[in-house]
Prior knowledge:
Mean pLDDT: 92
Strand order of the largest sheet: 3-2-1-4-5-6-7
Strand content: 15-25%
Shape: globular
Order of helices and strands: EHEHEHEEHEHEEHEHEHEHEHEHHH
Distance between the termini: 7 Å
Helix content: 40-55%
Low-confidence stretches: none
Number of helices: 13
Amino acid sequence: MRIGIYAGSLRPGGGITALRQVLDGLLVMKNVQITVFTGAEDCSQAVRDLVEQHPQLAEERFYPGARSITRYLHSKWAFRKRGRDFDWLFSVNYHLPAPCKVAVYHLNLLSFQSGPGDGWAAAWKRFDARHACKNADVNLFESQCLLDAAKQSTGGKIHNADLLYLGIHSQFFADATDHVELHPAQLLMISSMGAHKDNPTALRTLAKLVQDRPDIDWKLKVAGGQSKAQWQPLMEQAAELGVADHLEILGPLDRGALSKELRASLCLINPSRIESFCMVALEAMASYCPAIVTSETSMPESVGDAAAVVEAGNEQAFAAAVLQYFDDRKLRSEFIEHGRRRAEQFAPLEFRRRLAEVLPE
């Protein structure tokens, strides 16, 4: 089977994580030849090791020096011809007209609902996502929450809709015998600078903890984003709240380092309001780190009853949940146990099995 994967619109973050999982899942299938089309250099770097390891996987750079909007527009025409080389063309979040079968993996809740500061580009992306729902041969959705939003946005007009939960990378399933020292007053947030991530709530939570329990040396570590420098606005906000000395920016980390940071932390705090699926919470659970998430969008679906779920934007509720983990170690251990069982439901093998089901030869 010949499969093309268009990744020209992807940058480091959730999209790249999904791309690598899709590639991992396809590469274990028999008699497949895969071509992944990358755009920006950081996307190309993210798949280079897989290309070098697997002879059945090839990479093609798609307008690598172009702006993202230019690459997007070219993709709408290029695969009308290029698609003849494939049995399946796989894209993320939008539809590519092609003579072969087309599968679209929907990963962004903002493709179907408005978000903070939306402009014309966001409106166009929503139009394109709705077009994909009606015209792709298969439409895959990262969560039931996302599928429900798509149904509401399209009036239920979705062609061959199916759920495909992303799997957790095996590196997060840390070995319990691999000892990492716990820092009992350390919190970890894995985020980006998007307004919907609501990072200020994490800072206000930190400030409340410092105010209410000044005898404890609280520390909030922040991982993610494109670089440490990108987090300067958050550092400035922390200074305004008087907690800059309690904040440490880690920036982007590889999975091994991130898993260790999770195991070393009292808990993960995730104040985000909009997620198509809260993978960071499940990665924390796999790494023996209990999580605190909001009650918005896909968060309750993602964590089930294995994490603390609190009101979005409410630093008092976040701080209370942190203190429960800090003061009641038995409770924290129970959440770790529940979380690990929850995470095991999203192991990589299950993702691969489901992917093979939805992309039949």
